[in-house]
Amino acid sequence: MLLYQDPRAPNPRRVRMFMAEKDLGGRGVSVELIEVSINEQANRAPAHLARHPLGLLPVLELPDGRVLRESMAICRYLEELYPEPPLFGTDAWDRAQVEMWNRHAELELLFPVAQVFRNTHAFWQGRIKQAPEFGEIMREVVAERMDWLDHELGHRRFVAGDAFTVADITAVCALDFGKISNLRIAEDRHRNLARWYGEVKARPSYKA
């Protein structure tokens, strides 16, 4: 399999972390990482647009030439092929909890973090139409969501429960992506979030 990705972007990282948790290399599964640099606009080149007309990443290409777009679609596909360890839950209720919390992590953390970056960071100047005021509103939203997630993590070990899941992957990728926009965990204020972050950071998959 081929994974077209940018090593600096959060969505490809979600897939890389997911694959690392599945230990695909240890199973003898070959996934070649092919860099498509957003900075160099390689994601807008005809070769990549043929794989994804929107120019987004990541894209997983199967040996038979079929492609999968969107990070969670790729992760769900890999979960079906390699169900252990389970990262999307183990029964109907558990899977629903993971789905709920992964959506929370996407919509309440990753989306506003991305909007701060897109609308306030110099990287995007001249590349897209920015709305700095909206970006600052999203900065306030991220701060509120960190408070909320800190409270939630006072009741359980991981985002969706007692087991590490894809929801933790999404959340940590969102929070790390926020650092480029100076969005950071305040360890004196977010003690539960900092505890969780330290535990996730210690996992081998964090470096994927």
Question: Layout of helices and strands, plus pairs?
Answer:
Blueprint: E1 2-5, H1 10-22, E2 32-35, H2 46-51, E3 59-61, E4 67-69, H3 71-81, H4 92-120, H5 132-152, H6 166-178, H7 191-201
Parallel strand pairs: 1-2
Antiparallel strand pairs: 1-3, 3-4
Helix pairs in contact: 1-3, 1-6, 4-5, 4-6, 5-7
Describe this structure in words.
50% of the residues lie in helices and 7% in strands. It has helices spanning 10-22, 46-51, 71-81, 92-120, 132-152, 166-178, 191-201, and strands at residues 2-5, 32-35, 59-61, 67-69. The protein folds into two domains: 2-81, 3-Layer(aba) Sandwich (Glutaredoxin); 92-207, Glutathione S-transferase Yfyf (Class Pi), Chain A, domain 2 (Up-down Bundle). The protein has a four-stranded mixed β-sheet with strand order 2-1-3-4, covered by helices on one side. By secondary structure, it is of the alpha+beta class.
Annotation keywords:
Glutaredoxin, Glutathione S-transferase Yfyf (Class Pi), Chain A, domain 2, single chain, 208 residues, 7% strand, 2 domains
Q: What is the CATH topology descriptor of the largest domain?
A: Glutathione S-transferase Yfyf (Class Pi), Chain A, domain 2
CATH hierarchy, class of the largest domain: Mainly Alpha
Rg, Å, rounded:
17 Å
Oligomeric organization of the protein chains: single chain
Q: What's the rounded overall pLDDT mean? A: 97
What general form does the structure show? globular
Stretches where pLDDT is under 50 for at least 5 consecutive residues are: none
Q: Structural class per helix/strand content?
A: alpha+beta
**Count of spatially separate domains:** 2
Helix tally?
7
Distance between the amino and carboxyl termini: 17 Å
